[in-house]
Amino acid sequence: MSDPRILTVRPQPGEYAWTFGGVPPVARIAPGTVLDLFTEDCFGGRVRSEKDLVSEVCEFPFLNPQTGPFHIEGAEPGDTVAVHFVSIEPARDWAASTTVPLFGALTSTHTTASLQPPLPEAVWIWQLDRTRRTALFRAHDNDFEAELPMDPMHGTVGVAPANLEVRSALVPDAHGGNMDTPEMRAGVTCYLGVNVEGALLSLGDGHARQGEGETCGVAVECAMNTVVIVELLKGIATPWPRIESDTHIISTGSARPLEDAFRISQLDLVQWLVRDYGFSESDAYQFATQAVESPLANVCDTNYTCVAKLRKQWLPERETHRGVHARLRETAAALPR
């Protein structure tokens, strides 16, 4: 096997994408390419201190800058792009989190309108210890401090949507996008159904860590140095983004209301069991009901995202997605460090 091609991309400030779809590719890549990427944080690097309020230093809708898109040679509708996350490492020793007026799960919003005034803006700067793998929280209103373990992830990864649509990088849907699931960490493979020629893959929105649900709407946001391997599975359709780790298969669903996002993720998991693991639909429905874990990803974005995950150790020994996760794990282990 020949060594994989490695493409390094460090975008300049004016070279990010703000949507999925509607943006020309920054590069054409062959399946099997390793992408060594820098991704900027969701604020475009503009929130750097507690004085930098989002409403003053950022311009809506220019949030969630994406690195890409990448045209994957040979990708056509009906195929699946596999994105294996080799490493996700914070690019700075600090990260930012905020409250934003009319945004988040515990405040009035544009879609949950009320006479209640918006929550005030505030900024928390988290110090990252990249050696010890910790993120330091400092309270504003007393002297409480706490070190939490870093768990770097990407809030946003996706391809161009179907039907000529262009979607904001703030929106999760069937194309992927701003799913904000902590499951999107190093070591996993994300499967995305191709909707347009070349797929047009982008990613961004790095989080040093995030709780399930992303309740206030903002994680511990930071720039990332990320390495991924991109593969193409011809003739395999993936209706909603899926994730495979060494221990779990994971389906996602994004919609409003929240119960519809839940239903989508659960249905996709059932259909995955039928397609690749030999279950009948009724057996899959029963088995998943008793075995599934259902963490929330986000309950704040334009669409909410739910996750349905199932332990591989409880499943028949069958190959899923042509065994690409295991192969990409081997490729990742052989890459120079």
UniProtKB/TrEMBL annotation:
It comes from the Bacteria. InterPro entries: FmdA_AmdA. Coiled coil: none annotated. Pfam families: FmdA_AmdA. This is Acetamidase/formamidase family protein. It comes from Streptomyces cinnabarinus.
